[in-house]
């Protein structure tokens, strides 16, 4: 899917790590939500209350998923899932464009 129709966009950005990670919330009529964002190169730790699917639209990163010692290489066109109430780590090596879908 390359575009979303009939959505509400929250204008105010979510800004993390001094502006190195930003996103905007997209709300759908059925109550579901996604975020669209950009991450600059760096290392980040995130926590999520809801399970999520992170689609990498462009760029490259490594992810360390909850309970794993391994770092997985992910590039544009690939995705990964994070369970609810979990934390995960990222090593972003190039500018990353992403879409995150939440499963409440």
UniProtKB/TrEMBL annotation:
The keyword Transferase applies. InterPro entries: Ppnp (IPR009664), RmlC-like_jellyroll (IPR014710), RmlC_Cupin_sf (IPR011051). GO terms for molecular function: guanosine phosphorylase activity; purine-nucleoside phosphorylase activity; thymidine phosphorylase activity; uridine phosphorylase activity. One of its GO terms (cellular component) is cytosol. SUPFAM superfamilies: RmlC-like cupins. It comes from the Bacteria. Its EC number is 2.4.2.1, 2.4.2.2. Belongs to the nucleoside phosphorylase PpnP family. Catalyzes the phosphorolysis of diverse nucleosides, yielding D-ribose 1-phosphate and the respective free bases. Can use uridine, adenosine, guanosine, cytidine, thymidine, inosine and xanthosine as substrates. Also catalyzes the reverse reactions. This is Pyrimidine/purine nucleoside phosphorylase.
């Amino acid at each position: 899917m390359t575009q979303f129709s009939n959505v509400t966009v929250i204008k105010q950005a979510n800004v993390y790590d001094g502006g190195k990670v930003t996103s905007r919330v997209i709300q759908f009529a059925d109550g579901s939500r996604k975020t669209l964002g950009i991450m600059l190169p760096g290392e980040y730790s995130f926590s999520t209350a809801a399970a999520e699917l992170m689609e990498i639209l462009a760029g490259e990163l490594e992810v360390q998923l909850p309970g794993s010692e391994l770092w997985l290489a992910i590039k544009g066109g690939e995705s990964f899932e994070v369970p609810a109430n979990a934390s995960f780590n990222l090593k972003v090596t190039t500018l990353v464009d992403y879409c995150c879908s939440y499963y409440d």
